[in-house]
Specification:
- Residues 1-50 form the FHA domain.
- This protein starts with a strand and ends with a strand.
- It has a single domain (2-72), classed as Tumour Suppressor Smad4, CATH 2.60.200.
- By secondary structure, the chain is mainly β.
- Helices cover 0% and strands 45% of the residues.
- The protein has strands spanning 2-3, 11-12, 23-28, 31-36, 43-45, 48-49, 55-58, 63-66, 69-72.
- It contains no helices and 9 strands.
Length: 74
């Protein structure tokens, strides 16, 4: 889980725009997914805004934005 909650998030992003529990990354048989955890400022993957609690598969090179924090998945 990625978010700004210092005690419970696996990876902490100390940004005001990131929710305490923003996204969850999961792996199954070498395939990865990202789930928006009902974040306040949203999650975008490949430029598309995910719905609250929506899960989408990740591909190498995908851009993930948690509010205004951008990362590339490899």
């Amino acid at each position: 889980m990625i978010g700004k909650h210092k005690d419970l998030a696996d990876y902490v992003l100390l940004k005001d725009t990131v929710s305490r529990f923003h996204i969850r990354l999961d792996e199954n048989n070498g395939r990865y997914t990202v789930t928006d955890l009902n974040s306040t400022n949203g999650t975008r993957v490949r430029g598309r805004l995910l719905e609250a609690n929506e899960t989408t598969q990740l591909e190498p090179g995908d851009q993930i934005f948690m509010a205004d924090c951008g990362y590339v998945f490899y």
